[in-house]
Fold this sequence. Notes:
Elements: H1 3-6, H2 8-16, E1 22-31, E2 34-39, E3 52-55, E4 76-85, E5 90-94, H3 102-109, E6 115-124, E7 127-131, E8 137-141, E9 168-177, E10 182-187
Parallel strand pairs: 3-5
Antiparallel strand pairs: 1-2, 1-4, 2-3, 4-5, 6-7, 6-9, 7-8, 9-10
Amino acid sequence: MDWQAESPELWTFLGSLHDGEILTGTVAAIERFGVFVALDEGPGHPIFPGVGFLTMPELSWRHFTDPEQVVRIGQRVTCEFIGFDTYNAEARLSLRALQPDPLRAFACRTEAGHVLRGTVNAVCPIGVFVDVGDGIVGLVPFREYPGAAKNSGFPSADRSADFEVGAGITIVVLDIDLPRRRLLFTQADGGR
């Protein structure tokens, strides 16, 4: 669709926005791929429920499985404009840009070698994801796991059986990679 010809008012509005501009609006629709926002100062969108759009990663710094854990239909939101999607004629928005980044704060107060207590968040074939609080989750790769399988004295072929979601675990910080937003841990001796 030629948005510029079909909706010149919408195209003009979107073209007038600047990166970093703060916009307000109301959550108009929640889909599995993102959230539509009806912007206070913007025109309506001819197809979508709102001219503003929040992709899933831009909703929050914290992990969530359902966007309704972050916003609700009818909720007032304040967002940062991060781009003009010319294909869909939408204002791409970010809620998380206006929130402090908990990983950055964690990195400021923590360094490699710190021993922390956490909770097993998920167990998968490559390792164990551990939540150390404030939504900070890192990976203990099985290649870093020094423990042995329960009651056998030998390393477990399937180490996932050694961990239970929700269990407490003591870990050591190996690496904090802010650009890639990744944390690597190893289980501390004694681990549990």
